[in-house]
Amino acid sequence: MLTEDIRNLAIDIADLNQLKLDLNGLQPVDAGDYIAQLPQKKRAIAFRLLNKCQAIDVFEYLPPDVQEDLINSLHDIQVAQIVEAMSPDERAELFDELPAGVVKRLLQTLSPEQRQATATILGYSEGTAGRVMTTEYVRLREGLTIGEALSKIRLQDKDKETIYYAYVTDDNRKLVSVVSLRQLIFTFPDVLIREIASDRVVRVKTETSQGEVARIMKRYDLIAIPVVDREDRLVGIVTIDDVIDILEEEATEDIQKLAGVSGGDEDALSPPHVTIRKRLPWLLANIVLYIGAASAISPFQGVISQVPVLAIIMPILANSSGNVAFQVVSVTVRGIGVGEVTPKDTIPLLRKEVMAGAGTAIALGLALGTLSLIWSPPQDRWVSVIAGMVMVANVLLAATLGTLLPMGLKRINLDPALISGPLMTTTLDALGFFTFLSMISFALNVFKG
Amino acid sequence: MLTEDIRNLAIDIADLNQLKLDLNGLQPVDAGDYIAQLPQKKRAIAFRLLNKCQAIDVFEYLPPDVQEDLINSLHDIQVAQIVEAMSPDERAELFDELPAGVVKRLLQTLSPEQRQATATILGYSEGTAGRVMTTEYVRLREGLTIGEALSKIRLQDKDKETIYYAYVTDDNRKLVSVVSLRQLIFTFPDVLIREIASDRVVRVKTETSQGEVARIMKRYDLIAIPVVDREDRLVGIVTIDDVIDILEEEATEDIQKLAGVSGGDEDALSPPHVTIRKRLPWLLANIVLYIGAASAISPFQGVISQVPVLAIIMPILANSSGNVAFQVVSVTVRGIGVGEVTPKDTIPLLRKEVMAGAGTAIALGLALGTLSLIWSPPQDRWVSVIAGMVMVANVLLAATLGTLLPMGLKRINLDPALISGPLMTTTLDALGFFTFLSMISFALNVFKG
Question: TM spans, by residue (chains A, B) (predicted)?
C-alpha cells in the first residue's frame, strides 16, 4: 500500500515545486523507490530537488545501477558530498558495484579519514563481519565518568550509525566492556563508566562469516555487535539492519539452492539470460545424471514389454521417494540454517528421521502395493508385493540420505544446501528403478522360467 | 562454539557454589540453554541458583515446556515474581502454551496493570501486530521540553523493552509524532519536544499481519514500530528482536511448505509422530493425484509394449519439467515472501519466466531429443522428435503455471506457498505423460497402422 502512494505521486515533472515538497516529505526509502522507477533521464532532475540531508539518505536506498547512473549525471561536487556523507559500509557496498575507474575517482574526492575507513572495509573478504561492519561507532575510555561520556557522545558526529551502545577500550584499543545509552542516561553523571559497563561483551572477529554474525546477534538480542581483529582490538560494529538483510539473503539462498538455482541469489525480476544461466546447468546436470538412471533401466526393456503395468508403477515409486527426500532435506537444511541443529545432533536427527521414515514408508508401501494390485492384469498381480517392498526400502533410503548428506556437508564446512532437491531426487529414482526392475526380472526368471 | 562452552560447564550439581557463579556470569540465553539441557529434576535446583535479575532474564529464554516445568516445581512466590517481571509480549506467549488452569492461577497473582496488559495482547488474533507487540513503551505529551522528557524517561521503569524511541500522543492518546533517544540527548534541554519530533511516523494497526509488520520495519530500518488501534490511538510497539524471529519463521514456512510439509512449522528435532503427521498427508495426496496421472497412462499400456524406449524417456520428461516448475515456484514464492514482487508485477514476471522458459525448453528439448535418438532402436527413432517437442511444451507450461499459480494465490490473499512443489510436479507429470503418449499413439496409428 505504501508503494501505491508513491506510484500515485505527481509524476508530472512540470510541477517541480509540488514534486520537491512531496519528495522531501517522504521517508527516504519511499523517495528512493519513486526516483528509481522514473525513466533514466528524469532521475537526476528529481534527485536534484532533494534537500541535502534528504539527498544523502535517499541515495543510500537506491539500487546500485541507479546510484551509478546518478553519479554519472550529477555534478562532481554534489557526488563528492553525498559519497563523503554515506556510512562507510554502504559506501563499500556501492564501490563494490561500480567500475574501477569511477571508484578511483570517487576515492580521491573523499576525506583521508573516510578514505581510510572505506579501504579498511574493502580489505576484508566478501561475506565476513569485516566487510559488512561500519567503522562509525562510539568508543570510550574506561576512566571517564558518565557525564564526561555523554558530553563526548554529544560532541561526536550525529550520523554515527548507532550510538545505542558505546564500547570501552583500553590504551591499546582492545575491547574491554560495553555500556548502553540506556544505562548512561539512567545513571548519575559522576559515576565512573567502569562501574556500570558490562565486561561480558559478545563480539565477533573480522573474519567471522556474516551468517554467523547474524545468528549470534539474533541469539543475544543485540542491535549492534563489536567486531575485533586478531589482537582483540575494536575495528567496527555490525548493526541490526544489516543482520536482517543477511538473514533474509541466507534464507533465500537456502530456498533457491534446494530448488536447483545455482548461487541461490536470483532476483525474481532478473533478466531472462541471468535466469537461464542460474537454472539451466542444474537441469542439464540432472539429465546427465538421468542417463545413469536410464542405463539402469535400459537392460530391462524386455521386462517392461512383458509387464507393461511397470511403466505406471515406476513413476509413482520414483516420485514418492523423491518427495520424501525433498521433505527431509528441506527440514534438515533449514534446521542447520537457523542454527536449530548442528553436526553434533546427527544421531538424534537420524534416529527421528528414520523412525518417521519407517511410518511413512509403510503407509506409502501399502498404498502403492494396493494400487498396483488394482491396476495389474490378473497374471501380473505378484508385482504389487515387490512394488510395496521396494517403496518401503526406497523411502527409508530417502530419509537416511536426506539427513546424512546435508549434515555431512555441514560437518566438513560446506554449504548443506548443495544437496539440491532435484539431484537427490534423480539419484533416488535411479536406485529405485534399478532395484525394482532387478527384483521383477529375477522373479520373472525364477517363477516364470 | 558458544554452545560448546555451556556443555562443558560443571554439570556436577554437587559443586553448587561454583555452578552458581558460572550461571550468574553467563549471558541469560546461554544460562537458559544450560538449564534446558539438564535432566528434568535438576532444572529447578540449577534455576534457584540464579540471582533475581538473572532468573527473570533467563526464564524468558527457556523453551515453553521447560518454563511450564519450572512453574510447577518452583515456589508460588518465586513464580509470581518472575511472571510479573516478564515483558507483556513474552508473558502472552508463555500463557499461550500453558494449560488454562495454570494461566488462570498465574493471572490472579499479577498486578492489575500487568494483568490488563496481558489480557490486551491475548485479545488479538495470533499472527497479528496486536499479538506480538509489547505494551511497555515510552509515551510523551507534546508540550514537554527535552529536559522534562528525559527526566520522565529516567523515572519510568528501566525494564521497558525499548526506550530508544519515545512516542508523542495528544490528549486522546492518538499518535502524533516520534522522537528518538538519540535526538533527545543531542538537543538542548529547554527545547520543546514538538520542535524536534518527526510527524512522519510509520505505524501499523493492531490487525496488521506480523509478516507485514516485519517487512515494514525492515523497509524503514526501524528498531521499533508503534501499533495503533482503529482510532489511531497508540496501544503498543513491536520491537526488532520479534521481527527477526518473524522473518525467520516465515522463511522456514516458505521452505517447508514448498517441500510439502504442511503448516511449514516442523522443528528439525520434533518427535517422529509429529513429523509423520506433517508430511504424510501430502505424500498420500500426491499418490492420489498420481492415480490421475496413471489413468492418463493406463490406456496406453499397449503403446508402451510396442515402444519400450518410452519407459526411459517418460521419467526424464516428467522429471525435467517438474524441476523447472520447482525452480520457478521457489523463486516466485520467495520473491513474494521478501516483498520483491507483488501481484502488480505478474505481467513482467510472467514475461521474464516465459522468455527464460523458452530458452530452457529448447535446450532441454534438444537434450532429450538427442538422447532418445541414441537410445531408440532404429525403427523407433521417430519417437525422439515427439519427445523433444513435448519437452518444450511441458517446460513452457511449467514456467507459466509456476509463475501464475503463486501470484494468483497471493492476489486473492492466500498463501502463495500453498503451491507445494510436489503437487505441482505431479500435475505436470500427468499432463506431460498424457500429451506424450497421445501423440505417440496417434503417430503409431497414422504411420504404422
Answer: 280-297, 354-376, 382-405, 426-447
ipTM of the complex: 0.80
pLDDT recorded at residue B2: 44
In the predicted structure, residue A11 carries a pLDDT above the cut 70: no
Please list every residue in chain B whose beta carbon sits closer than 8 Å to the beta carbon of residue A218: 241, 244-245, 248
Measured on CA atoms in the order A363, A364, A369, A371, is the torsion positive or negative?
positive
> CB-based contact (8 Å) between A316 and chain B?
yes
pLDDT for the residue numbered A399: 92
Percentages helix, strand, coil for chain B (3-state, rounded to 5) are 70, 10, 25
**With an 8 Å Cβ cutoff, is A266 touching chain B?**
yes
Across the interface, whether the CB atoms of B247 and A247 are under 8 A apart is answered yes
CB contact under 8 A, A259 and B314: no
Residue B266: closest CA among chain A residues belongs to which residue?
Answer: A331
pLDDT confidence of residue B12? 54
Q: Which residue of A305, A334, A441 to mutate against B (max B Cβ within 10 Å)? A: A334
Query: Is B279 near chain A, with CB under 8 Å?
Result: yes
Residues A159-180 have pLDDT tens digits of: 666 778 899 999 899 999 999 8
CA B414 to chain centre: 15
| Best to test chain A binding among B200, B202, B331, B433 (most A CBs inside 10 Å) | B331
CB within 8 Å: A352 and B429: no
* Percentage above 90 pLDDT, chain B: 25
Three-class SS of residue B176? strand
Indicate whether B52 pLDDT > 80. Answer: yes
Which strands make up the sheet holding A204-205, listed edge to edge? A204-205, A224-228, A234-239
**Domain A16-123, CATH among 3.40.50.10750, 2.60.40.60, 1.25.60.10, 3.30.70.270:** 1.25.60.10
* pTM score: 0.81
Q: What is the reported pLDDT for A157?
A: 64
Confidence band, pLDDT 50/70/90 cuts, at residue B447? confident
Chain A residues whose beta carbon lies within 8 Å of the beta carbon of residue B60: none
Q: Do A182 and B200 touch (CB under 8 A)?
A: no
Q: Which residues of A touch B433 (CB under 8 A)?
A: 315
Asked if B248 lies within 8 A of A243 by C-beta distance, the reply is: no
Task: List phi, psi (to 5°) of B113.
Answer: -60, -50
Query: Could you tell me how far CA A66 lies from the centroid of its own chain?
Result: 23
A356 touches chain B (CB under 8 A): yes
The CA-based angle A315-A320-A322, given to 5 degrees, is 95
How far apart (Å, rounded) are the C-alpha atoms in residues B383 and B379? 9
Starting at the edge strand that comes first in sequence, how are the strands of the sheet with A138-141 ordered?
A: A138-141, A165-169, A175-180
- Given an 8 Å threshold on Cβ–Cβ distance, is A271 in contact with B301? no
Alpha carbons B186 and B142: distance in angstroms, whole number: 18
Q: Kindly tell me if the per-residue pLDDT of B158 is higher than 80.
A: no
Work out the percent of chain B whose per-residue pLDDT is above 70.
95
Out of 3.10.580.10, 3.40.30.10, 3.40.50.300, 3.40.640.10, the CATH code matching A137-258 is: 3.10.580.10
pLDDT in tens, A53-105: 889 889 988 988 899 889 888 888 888 888 888 888 888 888 888 888 888 88
CB contact under 8 A, B181 and A186: no
Give the A:B interface size as CB pairs under 8 Å: 336
The domain defined by B272-448 carries CATH number 1.10.10.10:
no
